[in-house]
Amino acid sequence: MNSHLDLRDVSVSFNGFKALNSLNMSVRKGELRCLIGPNGAGKTTALDIICGKVKPSAGSVSFDGTALQELEEYEIARAGVGRKFQVPSVFRELSVSDNLEVARARRTSVFGNLRWSIGNAARNDIERLAELVGLTEQLDRPAAYLSHGQTQWLEIGMLVAQDAELILMDEPTAGMTAQETRKTAELFVRLKGKHTLIVVEHDMGFVKAIGDIISVMHMGQMLAEGTAAEVEAHPEVRRAYLGSGGISHA
Amino acid sequence: MPSNASNSSGLQRLIAQLAPLLIVSALVFALPVLLNNDFLLNKVARYLVLGILTISLGLSWGFGGILNLGQAMSFGLGSYAMAMALKLKTVPVHTGASGLPDFMVWNNVQHLPWFWEPFRSLSFAIAAGLIVPALVAAALGWFMFRGRVTGVYVSIITLATMVVINLVIIDQQSYTGGFNGITDLAQLELFGVAFDAYGRATYYLVAGCVLLSLLVAFAFTKSRAGLIVQAIRDHESRVRYFGYDVALYQIFVFALSAAIAGLAGMLYTVVMEFASPTFLGVQLSLSVVVWCAVGGRQSLVGAFLGAVLVAGMQGALSESAAFLETWTLVMGALFVLVVLFLPKGLAGLAQSTWRWVAQRRQAAGGAVARGVSQTEGST
Known about the structure:
Chain A is of the alpha/beta class. Chain A is built from nine helices and ten strands. Chain B has two domains: 327 residues, no CATH class; 34 residues.
């Protein structure tokens, strides 16, 4: 196995409910992997396991040979894993530029951060990031005043600022307009290659626009993996989505 | 060019943010010129010290999101550190062998306890007044923040810890003076200057410490670490996923806040000329929360002024018989009103007024500015 990220027989249960049941998944370096599945399939839990929010009750998560399941959340982040949450999670009372500055976590120690000037390079970096996510006009405003779509963009910008090797995105386009979604797809395609991305999405149009390989989860297990066409033709996937009008309408 | 422009606007913003701090400090320093009354100056110095204590709470509560209901614990520890040193410098009247403090003589203590010995050195006492509260806070913070204790539980634990230390001090009468505290102290002498509680020197010492505390707290909030602490206040778990060890930042701001409170405690002993278990009492500790909320917990200057104004008002009102009994009611009502109508306190009110004025001025001058930018654009 020469994969970048490797989940082996990962299981988690919440009060007896098996959210993940022996999940296996491997992702290559630089890949953009889409993770889909019906509600309750365990997609978000899979991301929670990787970033350390939830600890597996069995199995292992290895990232470039590091066993992530043994690390604290901040150690996993330092190992190069970034996470965008389903509910946009930004620092509401801080300005947009301060949000981006916190995310640019080049140094993480307390005493290393007892400095004032953030320097010109950092400021240019933040201006470039704000331009990337279309928030140049909002740089000095508190994040609390942003619209839902803008907040999503800010969090995506924060992940780019963090410059993590592996980026986990949980429904990044929720609450975005069609145009915003298209812009997000373009950005993701640009990030692919330099970063490894795992994107949980419901919007099949978006998934087809960005994904090379799609992983389909069902009942805490990996059901199928392949290109969009392969996955859509897969009989078990069709069965899992039965009643919701097939995969494209999920 | 754009980076230069943002640089200078950043500098302007920094000056604008420092302005209230410097103006208030200048007023504090100028007061003795206007107020030629040593008794009143001593009273004001007392309120200023309480202001420093409230700045320290603003730092942990307003910026770090850690509501420490036991802030007076650090204050009391600082106060006792100074009192122990000054007690050992008193002219022996009722003292035993080698200047044994009088209350120890009354309690049949034969030798100065080991932990009193180092307080013969004033420098040690001053260092201890800062370091002991910081270390106690860091140790307490270590257990709380490593264990991810948040919100109201932090408040309960800090309050309970303070009460425990308070009871220990009262209980260990032979070593601490118990309920009476440590009284009959020598005057503080630093670099050949004697600090009489009713003298100008003491007032200026306090004023200098006000400026110092404001500047240190301000510098911290403007540092990158200060920014991360505010991010933790807004969304603690999110900060973890950027690779920051949240607990260490919380412990740091908690300890820094305790050190500033310790400084205030030491000054309080100098100004009051004694140390007492009430200095780490529940009533003072909760009052600090009210002062901080009234002044504006997210503004250092606001928190400071909140303490000086409300404590000053309390001092003035409680001298009249009518308010002596009802003062706590007034205080409670004030707290409720502020929480309901001014969540950012007086500082928030001042800020929104300032913004409103600026906007009106901008609206008036906007037409002209727009004309200029259009002509620039066309050239």
